[in-house]
């Protein structure tokens, strides 16, 4: 690679992305440099761009759904080689010494290193990351398919596989967007009796094509009643970032059913203690996943028919692509490519 690289940076909170030249970074001890081939644009990137997270510094190079190849290794890195295909997701490294890390729960590290927040991310031709953040991309996935799995994919995959649901159980996916379209596919691939919940009858055909056996139009019926008519959901995976929509599924949970929240919203859920007590129901959130989780997500995906539905744009069109993601028009994940 040349000694310089192009990046898409935001200079001030809420600003536009601009393409600028930066010096090509050298990997330090325990780090690798990645020649970026593709980087997904996640809804969380908007929070970084707006400066809503503590410690975000500008000018900012965001991007935490990265796929590419190692092109340089820092001192002490073992197990990896130049040319290896790798991904880096929301999990971009951990401190190793906080209470969570000492318990082996790395994704809840008190100082979790998220690319684009802790260090420059993947809206660039190259980036440096800790070797501990790397996940190996299997041959069955292209870079544009692998990139969204580093955050969106692993979040959905991990959330579903850590529930109490077993093949044959009724599992509902609330929302059919960037997370939800993957959620329906993974739920079907896991053997769940899959329900898709979304707004409007026009989304039913897509939901069934993705693997759902049932579709609930939340604008035409009471969601909880529809779920009860199907026998009650063992799990509702809430991917839509609507606290109100999440709250309206609780009475549709089967006894000991789980509402698993992964759609980010700052609004409060409206749930009474009686709704939880009488059915022994639970509500809990689920974070993303470690590098190992990302690798397992990609391996499963490569072996299955699950694939993210993506729209691609070249790095130089980062601003337009970001705004398309933010408008909700993308179907369903925007991915920047470098032409590498």
What does this structure look like?
With 340 residues, this protein is of the alpha/beta class. It folds into 2 domains: 4-151 and 289-337, Quinone Oxidoreductase, Chain A, domain 1 (Alpha-Beta Complex); 163-285, 3-Layer(aba) Sandwich (Rossmann fold), CATH 3.40.50.720. It is 24% helix and 26% strand. The chain contains 11 helices and 15 strands. The chain has helices at 43-49, 99-102, 143-146, 152-161, 180-189, 204-210, 223-229, 243-247, 273-278, 291-303, 318-327; strands at residues 4-10, 17-23, 31-41, 66-73, 85-88, 126-130, 135-136, 170-174, 193-198, 214-217, 233-238, 253-261, 282-285, 310-314, 333-337. The strands form 3 sheets. Strands 3, 4, 5, 6, 7, 14 and 15 form a 7-stranded mixed beta sheet that branches. Helix 8 links the parallel strand 11 and strand 12. Helix 4 (152-161) crosses helix 5 and helix 4 crosses helix 10. It is globular and about 60 Å long.
Number of helices: 11
By secondary-structure content and strand pairing, the structural class works out as alpha/beta
Q: pLDDT average, as an integer?
A: 97
Radius of gyration: 20 Å
Query: How many strands appear in the DSSP assignment?
Result: 15
Number of domains: 2
Q: What fraction, in percent, of the residue positions are helical? A: 10-25%
Top CATH class of the largest domain: Alpha Beta
The CATH homologous superfamily of the largest domain is called Medium-chain alcohol dehydrogenases, catalytic domain
Q: What are the secondary-structure elements, in order, as H or E?
A: EEEHEEHEEHHEHEHEHEHEHEHEHE
Query: What's the story with the biggest beta sheet?
Result: 7 strands, mixed
Instruction: Briefly note the CATH topology name of the largest domain.
Output: Quinone Oxidoreductase, Chain A, domain 1
- Strand proportion, as a percent range, falls in 25-35%
Low-confidence runs of at least 5 consecutive residues: none
């Amino acid at each position: 690679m040349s000694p310089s690289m192009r990046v898409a940076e935001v200079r001030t909170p809420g600003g536009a992305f601009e393409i600028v030249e930066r010096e090509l970074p050298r990997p330090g001890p325990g780090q690798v440099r990645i020649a970026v081939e593709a980087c997904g644009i996640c809804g969380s990137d908007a929070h970084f761009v707006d400066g809503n997270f503590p410690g975000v510094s500008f000018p900012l190079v965001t991007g935490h759904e990265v796929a590419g190849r190692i092109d340089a290794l820092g001192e002490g890195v073992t197990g990896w080689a130049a040319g290896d295909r790798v991904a880096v997701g929301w999990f971009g490294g951990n401190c190793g010494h906080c209470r969570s890390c000492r318990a082996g729960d790395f994704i809840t590290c008190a100082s979790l290193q998220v690319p684009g927040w802790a260090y420059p991310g993947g809206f660039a031709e190259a980036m440096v990351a800790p070797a501990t953040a790397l996940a190996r991309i299997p041959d069955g996935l292209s870079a544009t398919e692998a990139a969204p799995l580093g955050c969106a994919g692993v979040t959905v995959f991990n959330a579903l596989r850590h529930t109490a649901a077993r093949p044959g159980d009724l599992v509902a996916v609330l929302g059919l967007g960037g997370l939800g379209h993957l959620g329906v596919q993974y739920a079907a691939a896991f053997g769940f009796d899959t329900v898709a919940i979304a707004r409007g009858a026009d989304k039913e055909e897509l939901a069934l094509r993705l693997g759902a056996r049932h579709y609930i139009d939340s604008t035409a019926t009471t969601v909880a009643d529809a779920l009860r008519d199907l026998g009650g959901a063992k799990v509702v995976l809430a991917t839509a970032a609507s606290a109100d929509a999440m709250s309206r599924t609780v009475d549709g949970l089967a006894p000991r059913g789980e509402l698993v929240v992964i759609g980010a919203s700052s609004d409060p859920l409206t749930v009474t203690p009686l709704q939880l007590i009488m059915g022994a129901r639970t509500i809990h959130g689920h974070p993303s996943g470690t590098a190992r989780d990302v690798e397992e997500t990609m391996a499963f995906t490569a072996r299955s028919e699950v694939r993210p539905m993506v729209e691609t744009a070249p790095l130089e069109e980062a601003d337009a692509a970001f705004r398309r993601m933010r408008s909700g028009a993308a179907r369903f994940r925007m991915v920047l490519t470098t032409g590498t």
